[in-house]
Design a protein that fits this description.
The complex is a heterotrimer of chains A (about 400), B (about 90) and C (about 350).
Chain A (H helix, E strand, L loop, with lengths): L4 E10 L2 E2 L1 H9 L27 H8 L10 H16 L10 E6 L5 H12 L13 H10 L6 E4 L5 H14 L5 E8 L3 H9 L23 E9 L10 E10 L12 H14 L6 E5 L6 H15 L6 E2 L2 H4 L6 H15 L1 E2 L21 E2 L4 E8 L3 E8 L2
Parallel strand pairs in A: 3-4, 3-5, 8-9, 8-12
Antiparallel strand pairs in A: 1-2, 1-6, 1-7, 5-6, 7-13, 10-11, 12-13
Helix pairs in contact in A: 2-3, 3-5, 6-11, 8-9
Chain B lengths: L1 H14 L25 H15 L6 H7 L3 H14 L2
Chain C lengths: L2 E9 L18 E2 L15 H4 L4 H16 L7 E5 L5 H13 L8 H5 L4 H10 L4 E5 L5 H14 L5 E8 L3 H8 L8 E2 L16 E8 L8 E10 L6 H14 L9 E4 L5 H13 L6 E4 L1 H4 L5 H15 L7 E3 L8 E8 L3 E9 L3
Parallel strand pairs in C: 3-4, 3-5, 9-10, 9-12
Antiparallel strand pairs in C: 1-7, 1-8, 2-6, 5-7, 8-13, 10-11, 12-13
The chains are: A alpha/beta (about 400), B mainly alpha (about 90), C alpha/beta (about 350).
């Protein structure tokens, strides 16, 4: 017996704002969060990034954490801010019940501390920071904050991480293992990832331009987003924002970092998600694409979308021109944006568009576009060929 | 040039962890990619970094890269040209 | 929902990767850090791909290869892995280079290899497997999260065969950093771990992969009947552990008195082991057999994957190997085995195995 999965609360903090209201305002106002690096010193400071516009002290205040306590990494602070918003908007307080869970995702973990203190740590200094460096720390601090004890875990599958966390949460509810689950992801901007992507030569020197013929790479962002998912039985109907009707994760098995040029993995993920939701491509009102702005991803994903939707590609955009690519948090950040699209019956454009890709049949939205939108397809594709598609639906 | 080719071969073996390969297994003309040593796109990135960091040669144009990385001789020639033009 | 272990592949500090070793032959060490006995990877992995793989990926590929071959060679419907540290070695390498060279790095490969799902991705690539592929990275819950997901995947009807793995590599930096916290004992004979009554344990590592199936392949196939985790940040009280365990057993239609053997995560640390002693003395009924495993594989986040293998060996052979036994079981036939482990008394895990349970 399968239970319907409802989204009853969301929280988000990214380069385009703190909370859903600021996020909506930025999206509607076409205000990108991409700008100059200010979080740390780097030889790559000329490369645009999408930073959350708060320092750690400010984030501590927002999260209700004593800023003099140093065991809160930026990852954890972002996660706490987003989680508190989500839980509050769901009208929940958290509890130790066996029917609650907390599933989060990250790729960098406490890397901001790692890169700042590594040498000192190896010399035996800052010993109390050792336990906050890994990917589990944010999850456990969030779970502890809300008293959640069961189904507490962390997923790490590169850029599809938090989409997979949402998918796991949805399955746990659908299979009646849980009644309520807090899901999402967090990733902060670090020298580690900036240098890694720089060495891979996929960073845009000008700011990402997803699905544009002149696209020249991705822009790293940071942020956190959380959702409260509930079963139909426990959800307060007044709090229900939308339903998660479809999800799928597949592996492309093509290359360690690149996707195939025909988008086999992307096509498979989207197809299976539609099957799960028992809807057809025609039912999709908006696609929030993965659309990183790299040569390879946009071609691969674009071709897959053309294959699946044929001549009738629905309104589509990547919102990474606003938020940057928030890596492990992307699935959740864009999941929340998808929920906002449904709730407000509007889809947002891809920014920095000038020329369509000749290989594709579609052009992303260029203006804020009203619905109707019944179903949103949200894609998140990660290194290692990890492809996840989610479908959010209006009731 | 001979010494540079010898050094480059060693650099390639080390940078790409070609544990079973020794310098005598391939010569300056052996194709590096697809056939010959059978390297792939990740190896290409490593070699680009090698050229840049160790030899100070930055190659950004994809066509030029394919040309320069086709074999050790081409890499050596590129480095030598760079050294000559930089006095 | 239960599933059956139809094959396994294990690389550990014991001779577990072929059938000639453990438990007939036991590796003993005088050390506080146990290192895996590794096969010749060249026989198992294409040398061209082998060359730039970090050790942990080789361990993962080799163990999964053994597991899949023993299961008949077919590609699974899903690949789900748990790893507490991920590719820590390459992460450290890239991080140190970024710091030391002031961002003038010379190699991008460690960055590519440092993503936590690198093992799962490589396994899928070698098999050309397009199934569900997820990696869990949550300390002492990593393997159990993977196992729980696998059971659910099979229960949902989305998979008939799932490759599940637990893998962690011990690195020098990890040992050093945790050493500052008094995590490790002075080097000792590993088999004497439980009798030390001092603080600290011994570090370990391993790679254990299992094929879980919706159908047993023979009458005596070992069933994974349930998995449970609970997180108590301030440290668990005995009552809480007892309640969680009772609850878990009840949900799996089992009572305390039906557990024939308990495989415990005893690691030699006097504080940590107090929890296990409490359960032995006050929870399970007299006559229950007890065994331990961390003296054989060391302490690491996914050590319960080694325990799962050992538990299945115990049930298959219907006997507790002497080198693992803490207390003998009163019964003659063993139907239910419970694995109980905890990490720092905050993360607690339970895995229930059944024998001949169709």
């Amino acid at each position: 017996m399968h239970t319907r999965v409802f989204v009853t609360g969301v929280g988000i903090i990214s380069a385009i704002g703190n909370g859903t209201e600021e996020t909506l305002s930025s999206l509607n106002g076409l205000r990108s969060g991409i700008g100059q690096l200010s979080l740390f010193e780097s030889v790559h400071s000329n490369i645009p990034v999408a930073e959350v516009k708060y320092n750690n002290i400010q984030l501590s205040g927002m999260a209700g954490v004593d800023p003099t306590i140093d065991t809160y990494t930026r990852n954890t602070l972002l996660a706490l801010v987003a989680a508190q918003q989500a839980v509050k908007s769901a009208g929940w307080h958290g509890s130790t019940s066996q029917r609650n869970g907390c599933i989060m995702a990250t790729t960098v973990g406490g890397m901001d501390y790692n890169e700042r203190y590594y040498k000192s740590l190896l010399e035996g200094k800052y010993r109390d920071l050792l336990s906050v460096l890994d990917s589990a720390d944010s999850t456990e601090k969030v779970a502890a904050h809300f008293g959640i004890r069961h189904h507490v875990t962390t997923i790490s599958t590169a850029c599809s991480s938090s989409a997979n966390a949402i998918m796991l949460g949805a399955r746990l509810i659908r299979n009646n293992r849980l009644s309520r689950v807090l899901v999402g992801g967090t990733d902060s901007l670090t020298k580690f990832t900036l240098n890694g992507f720089y060495a891979l030569e996929i960073l845009s020197p000008t700011g990402c331009r997803p699905f544009d013929s002149n696209r020249n790479g991705l822009t790293i962002g940071e942020g956190a987003a959380m959702l409260v998912l509930e079963s139909e039985e426990t959800a307060d109907p007044r709090r229900v924002l939308c339903e998660i009707t479809g999800y799928a994760n597949v592996n492309e098995a093509f290359h360690q970092t690149a996707s195939s040029s025909d988008g086999t993995g992307a096509l498979l993920a989207m197809t299976k998600a539609l099957e799960k939701a028992s809807i057809t491509p025609e039912d999709i009102g908006y696609i929030n694409a993965h659309g990183t702005g790299t040569e390879i991803n946009d071609l691969s994903e674009g071709r897959a979308i053309d294959s699946l939707f044929g001549s009738r590609v629905p309104p589509i955009s990547s919102t990474k021109g606003f938020t940057g690519h928030t890596l492990g948090a992307a699935g959740a950040v864009e999941g929340v944006i998808s929920v906002l699209a449904l709730k407000n019956q509007v889809a947002w454009p891809g920014l920095n568009q000038s020329e369509s890709m000749p290989e594709l049949s579609f052009t992303p939205l260029s203006t804020v576009t009203p619905g109707p939108i019944r179903h949103v397809l949200s894609n998140s594709f990660g290194f290692g060929g990890n492809n996840t598609s989610l479908i959010f639906s209006n009731l | 040039m001979e010494n540079l080719i010898k050094q480059l071969k060693q650099d390639i073996i080390e940078a790409l962890s070609l544990e079973d390969v020794v310098a005598d297994d391939f010569n300056a003309d052996t194709p590096l990619f697809v056939e010959g040593l059978g390297l792939d796109s990740i190896d290409a990135l490593e070699l680009i970094l090698l050229m840049e960091r160790k030899y100070g040669v930055k190659i950004e144009d994809p066509k030029e890269r394919r040309n320069v990385l086709r074999n050790v001789k081409a890499m050596a020639e590129c480095i030598t040209n760079h050294r000559n033009s930089n006095g | 929902m239960k599933a059956y272990i139809t094959s396994s592949g294990v690389i550990s500090p014991q001779n577990t990767h072929d059938s000639s070793g453990f438990p007939a032959a036991v590796n003993t060490f005088t050390a506080n850090r146990l290192t895996c006995t590794e096969p010749d990877y060249r026989g198992l992995i294409n040398p061209i791909q082998l060359r730039r793989m970090p050790r942990i990926i080789k361990m993962g590929l080799a163990a999964s290869h053994l597991c899949i071959q023993r299961a008949g060679g077919s590609s699974p419907d899903a690949i789900i892995i748990g790893t507490g540290l991920g590719c820590m070695d390459n992460l450290e390498k890239f991080l140190v280079e970024v710091i030391d060279t002031n961002e003038h790095i010379t190699s991008v490969l460690p960055f590519i290899n440092s993503t936590h799902n690198a093992v799962a991705a490589q396994v899928a690539m070698l098999l050309n497997n397009h199934g569900y592929n997820v990696t869990y990275c949550h300390r002492g819950f990593s393997f159990e999260s993977a196992l729980g997901d696998a059971l659910m995947r099979i229960g949902e009807g989305e998979a008939q065969n799932v490759l599940v793995g637990g893998i962690d590599e011990c690195t020098g930096d990890f040992v050093k950093l945790n050493g500052y916290h008094g995590a490790w004992k002075q080097p000792l004979i590993n088999l004497e771990l439980a009798s030390t009554k001092t603080a600290g344990t011994i570090a370990g590592e391993g790679s254990a992969f299992f094929m879980l199936s919706d159908n047993p392949i023979h009458d005596n196939c070992i069933a994974v009947e349930g998995v449970h985790t609970f997180f108590i940040p301030q440290g668990a009280q005995f009552d809480e552990i007892a309640a969680e365990t009772d609850n878990f057993l009840q949900q799996n239609n089992t009572g305390r008195d039906e557990i024939d053997i308990v495989l415990l995560g005893i690691n030699g640390d006097i504080v940590s082991d107090a929890g296990y002693n409490n359960m032995m003395e006050n929870f399970f009924i007299p006559g229950t057999g007890f065994a331990m495993y961390k003296h054989l594989c060391g302490e690491y986040y996914t050590s319960s994957s080694f325990a799962l293998w050992l538990g299945s060996v115990i049930l298959e052979n219907q006997s507790i190997p002497g080198v693992t036994q803490v207390l003998p079981a009163a019964g003659r036939s063993f139907k239910k085995l419970l694995i109980y482990n905890h990490y720092r008394n905050t993360e607690h895990t339970l895995i229930l195995l059944g024998y001949g349970g169709i």
